Amino acid sequence: MTDQAIRPADDHLDIHDVERRIKAIFIGSIGNLVEWYDFYAYTAFALYFAPAFFPNEDPVVQQLNAAVLFAATFLMRPLGGWLFGYIADRYGRRLSLTLSVVCMCFGSLIIAVTPTYASIGFAAPALLALARIIEGLSLAAIAQLVDLPRSTVQRIIGALEAEHLAETIGPGGGFRLGPALGQLISQTQTDIISLVKPQMLALSEQLQESVCVSTLVGDKSYVVDRVVAERELRVVFPIGINAPATATASGKALLAELSEEAINTLLPDPLPVFTPMTLAREALLEQLREIKACGIAVDLGEYIEGLCSFAVLLDTYLDHYAIAIVAPSPRAMPRREAFQQALLACKQNIERAIGRAPRKS
Asked: Looking at the DSSP assignment, which residues form a beta bridge with residue 226?
């Protein structure tokens, strides 16, 4: 029997092995860094983007909705661990790590390019939910996240599918982001504010009055941008203000575009009264029919005493908006005809530059 001496291990370090290990640690840390950066960025900026995605006047509710989507990310982590673990075992750890990092980055990118609620309505929080979870949410899960009825989510998803912004992933009822989002990412993102701003500035400069652009959110006229006139007595109002659509020119211009059935469903009965000039329900419905025929909406001190506004509808491919001139009543009434002509010319210039919405056959 032969005895074999055991030699001590060689103390020489393999430089290439050390470099390989450091590189692997660094790459793994980068993936973890991207993940937690995404979490921190979402929570830090939710205070600012929550009002743009969740149409509720209560800021606490808006923040809670954003927090629900944040929590959904953690609820999906066990499924992600199983999925990417399976990919690592089957196809290799490098591919699994690369895919997981790409998915995290892609979700953040989708949040950055998703239009706001003012542009696409309830599709905005639905897309936000899709972006946060990325893979195959069922209709019930989306409905729970955005606090909408399942039937409403079904219609939203159907509209997104029609535009190739979402697509089904199998008979189980799951959905994922569609190929058309690639077109949104590859093109320069434009919105109504950047396109209309030059015309707003020109209109305000021409008339020396404040000008705003609004959209309809429920029964409120939501101001998305404004230009304040530089003069001694001027009207100043913040971006994001929700004024009653029934008592403002912008709101009336937007309401007049709806069907009578939609208007009757939307408007409360009786209508709230803000000043002695506020219209009753029947008088408002009659005025909306006149606005639809002539194209000009007016507010003669119906929301705030001593303040008048004049508005026209902007029928663009982005959505329906209203552009309005807001001025003190003593200055506005003698110039009423000039205001209306300037608005109609501005409307024509904007719709020619942006492109009108396609008409339904």
From this structure: 212
